[in-house]
Amino acid sequence: MTDDVLSRPTVHALLADGTTVCVRPVVAGDHDQLRGLYEEMSPENLRLRFFGVSRRSAERAADRACRPHPGYRALLAEAKGQVIGLAEYDNGGTGTAADISIAVADGLHHRGVGTLLVEHLVSAARAEGITAFTADALSENHEILRLFADLGLRTARRFEGPEMRCTIELVEDEHYLSATDARGRSADVASLVPLLRPDAVAVVGAGRTAGSVGRAILHHLKAGGFTRRLFAVNPAATSILGVPSHPSVSALPRTPDLVVVAVPAAAVPATAEECGKAGARALLVVTTGLDPAQAEALTATCRTYGMRLVGPNCLGVSNTDPELNLDATFAAGHPRPGTAGIAVQSGGVGIALLDGLSRLGIGVSTFASLGDKFDVSGNDMLQWWESDGTTDLALLHLESFGNPRAFSRTARRVTRRMPVLTVDAGRTDAGRRAAASHSAAAATRTMTRGALFTQAGITATRSVGELLEAAALLHSQPLPAGSRVLIVTNAGGAGVLAADACAEAGLSLPTPTPELVDDLLAVLPEGAAVGNPVDATAAVSEEQLKDCVDRVMRHPGVDAVLVALVPTAVAEATGDDLVRALTRATGRRPKPVAVVRLEQALPVQLLPTTDLRTLPAYAEPQAAARALAHAAHRSAWLARPAGTIPDLDGVETARAHTVVETYLDANPDGGWLGPRECAELLGCYGIPQLAWAWAETEDDAVLAADRLRGADGRVVMKGHWPGLLHKSEQHAVHLDLRGDSQVRAAFRDLETRFAGLLTGVVVQPLAERGTELFAGVVQDQVFGPLVLFGLGGTATELLADHTARLAPLTDHDVHDLITAPRCAPLLFGAHGSPPVDLEGLEQLLLRLSRMASDLPQLAEADFNPVLAAPGGVSVLDARVRLLPTRPQDPYLRRLR
User: Fold this and answer.
1) What are the DSSP calls for 615-657, one per residue?
2) Burial of 489 by CB count in 10 Å (0-12 exposed, 13-18 middle, 19+ buried)?
3) pTM confidence score
């Protein structure tokens, strides 16, 4: 067994029933337990595993696992220190196919032990270059054959007498990822049942006197009407707040599913250990101030005993299901039952959302304050809401992401079923990453998070207030078909404010057609002006306003209606009468309506309508416009089919890995590739580069220039030395060189000014005219590879006209990258000029994405400029930095 495999970290993952197991490589000390695994199997299971029964089978199998040979890999599953499963493959040290075998302890079948082990073994094998597993099984071994069939991998079967030969292709395609997603979702939801639907709850740390957090949570649980068993744990009391109290968790009359831990930080590890030994399945740790050692001990204990953990440093959890009424928080009040799921890291934000949603009448289905998020995350909660049958709106406030790519896959799936909204926290300069090149400097954490939210279809807002504004409209109104908004008002000034707000939010304000103008003038009072806004005048009556909105809603050129009302003393209808007119009109057409009432005290509220729905009313036109814009963006995201990752020809992944490994062998700390290594790496992915030549002497430079001169005879010379990033800033570039004498003079100039640094020069023909663009990649330690695109040249950082998407890029992501920057019109043929080679530009971005996805060692890449012209696209200058990074499978099932 190689050092690389032995150094793979131990991970914890969930079985199908939600229990936690440890998955790790086999070591020599596991011999006795592995032998016991086989010795305790029934004769029938031994026969199915070894095709016969022998007293020596167990010993030989344990020997094989603990004394491996080249090409052999073995992983085991362990629960509470006991080995419960083993998966192994062997290719004899050669070839790309390996034989696989699996063993699961008797009594633990049908819980997903074997499937989980095979998933991890597939990931390890793919990292070693193995492309297929083969397995022989007795044709009557239905369980193992079903396991192979259900993996989601392409499997071929062939009968060989009483045996069946299976060949499993290890291609990680969408079908396989979807299958593992489904298994992971089912296991995740099962693991959260003790936390969010517990049959028994115990509170450790509930004091006998007022003032403690534990006592407040105990009071909330009792006052909220928790319908299941409730206990307090306090050795100095037999009853607290009328709840039976016991001296320890182990002394409780029944094992609690959920234990709320509200003890001092120093006591948290021991309390967690006691809960684990007692058989608790979930911990809610509200305690703050754990030091690193205490935090590590808490996490290790939860993993050892298979307990899911919320917190520490959190507000608590709640589930408003009337059959449960779980409110294990210390918020001021109880949340109103409803259909919105909330997951936050900040307790203060959680309280604000609980209050806001309760006040709006939307209410809450499930709430989780994740705190320091040692275990349960936003990804877990999304999967719970997806499956709970109640939640139809998800609200998140996450300050960090444990596995953004797994989160993105989950969110993309969930947002197809319900709106997922978030507050985009951490948008300031304090969240920027330190950077050394153009690409890294351009990649702010704001840009990275924005890419994640955009690709996943998440509605990202800038504040808690904006989150509630958007939630009110998405909860109460249908989605618009587009972004065309018509404004109706009874006051011209209010209409102007609303028009400004819509334009600033990116909504369009179409001019009413003549037919619509005539239609509206027929029902509005004299003096009304039908434009956009429609000024219905202060004299408009309730019935007239209803008819006006009805006719606007029927018009095919309008996607949404914004009605701005102010109270006046002109008409017989009061402000409330006009609002009532809207509640009578808006339920008849599948288009959203938002109301602005400038006198309204609350920022947003939901008004009842005649069809039992609600109508969002805002105190500011900006709030209404933002909410409509969010709805339009969601509608557009849902209308677009899911993107695909196109197949690329001419990609030599194996050669690229060789280039990277060769460089890192010579440079263990990593660094910037030289021009030749950089060109070779780009060549592995078919990324087009302007012709170039390397020269280390003056004569070599002249020969290179003679060979590369174009029709006009001009060339460019660029100096190079290790670590040089910004050639233009260092004045290490000579342009427009004509003839041998200018080439020689340029070389001598660089040689003189950069004596002791210069290792050679790059000579290129002077490029044709075109648009200078920038394309780059940066590997974010948390988010993975991020592809950036925008305006290039020497002003790229100054103008900062960039956009970004997380790799791997789909065809839709590439389209978004090309169309989003402000420079996009230049690419599509502005001012009568022909468009650039858009297909070539798409290919360049897809190939850059593939390179970043294939090579985790690629820390950053910077193509600047990329010259885009009608006749083609080529990279004029490229820089690539490598770091020794161990690849990690972002989609492998494991706990944080």
Assistant:
1) EEEESSHHHHHHHHHHHHHHHHHHHSPPP-----SS--HHHHH
2) buried
3) 0.88
